Amino acid sequence: MRALCALAAVFLWLFIPAGHLHAAPLAVTVVLSESSGAYLEFSDALREKLLNKNIYLNVVDDPGEAIPEQGLIVAVGMKAATAIAGSSAHAILNVFVPRAGYEKLLHDFPLRAASKTCSAIFLDQPAERQVRLIEALLPGKRSIGILLDSYPPDDLVQLRQRMAKHKLTLHEHKIGPDFPLHVALQHVLDSSDVLLALPDAAIYNSSTIRNILLASYHSGDPVIGFSPSYVKAGALAAVFSTPAQIAAQAAMAIQRYGETRMLPAAQHSQQFEVSTNEQVSRSLGLAIKSAEELHQEISAIMGDEP
User: Fold this and answer.
1) Could you write out the DSSP letters of every residue in the chain?
2) How far apart are CA 290 and CA 273, in angstroms?
3) pLDDT digits over 114-134, tens only?
4) How far is residue 4's CA from residue 150's CA, in Å, rounded to a whole number?
5) Domains and CATH numbers, the chain
6) Mean pLDDT of 230-248
7) Res 184: pLDDT
8) Residue 187 class from Cβ within 10 Å (0-12 exposed, 13-18 middle, 19+ buried)?
């Protein structure tokens, strides 16, 4: 009997192709929009998560380089995502992209929209998580202002619904020729208790954020940002996902692709952090909970997260 088993093992080794005994590594090319900061943090964390997972990982820091058609491409940031969307790459996972940016890519490259091998992990947070942060942070403030330029209509509808569900009043003002940023901002600050900054690069960028924060501070309205850098600059708080958290989720999507050759649907980051600015809270005369307490409170009640 043992001799027969040994003979069978030899037969399998000789006649079954090696690829069926040991699957070839999945080739993953990570394309960074730039070789710095959060992009490098993400690629380093992703490499660590995929160690010993039968995955060959190559990191490219120039979206203009030739990209392989086969394997899986991970595009990190909008610059890389835009370059890769127009390439001949078969499978693409976009990360560090706002939902609005990803939807624009699908509009500009409709073949990607119909593909099960194109997906994303969004940089921005779901509306419910933002609303929960406001409620936990500033329970006495019920009037929330937002500035709009190119924010996705579907996301705006969802934000309105979430605000209404929590009995918060939403004051909106759209930027336009008749309402330049400084005019629209003052309208929103005059009618609101809190300014919720949305990830809209036409409004919130390096050339505008300082003036927005100063105007909000002088009006006594705290700003809820969407990144830790905004909190450092003067926003009261923000809910965000770290490069390591996004990398962990990306690693799971990559492993799923390796098994099924399909990517999960585009989604928000499952994990998140909260950051607060104690100096701003003191200057505005606000007593707020710590970042750790806020995180615990939001996590405890997110069972109905979209």
Assistant:
1) -HHHHHHHHHHHHHHS-HHHHSPPPEEEEEEESSSSHHHHHHHHHHHHHTTTSSEEEEEES-TTS---SSSEEEEESHHHHHHHHTS--SEEEEEEE-HHHHHHHHHHSHHHHT-TTEEEEESSPPHHHHHHHHHHH-TT--EEEEEESS--HHHHHHHHHHHHHTT-EEEEEE-BTTB-HHHHHHHHHHH-SEEE--S-TTTSSTTTHHHHHHHHHHHT--EEESSHHHHHHT-SEEEE--HHHHHHHHHHHHHHHHHHS--PPPEE-S--EEEE-HHHHHHTT-----HHHHHHHHHHTGGG--
2) 12
3) 888 999 999 999 999 999 999
4) 71
5) 7-123+244-268 (3.40.50.2300), 127-236+277-304 (3.40.50.2300)
6) 97
7) 95
8) middle
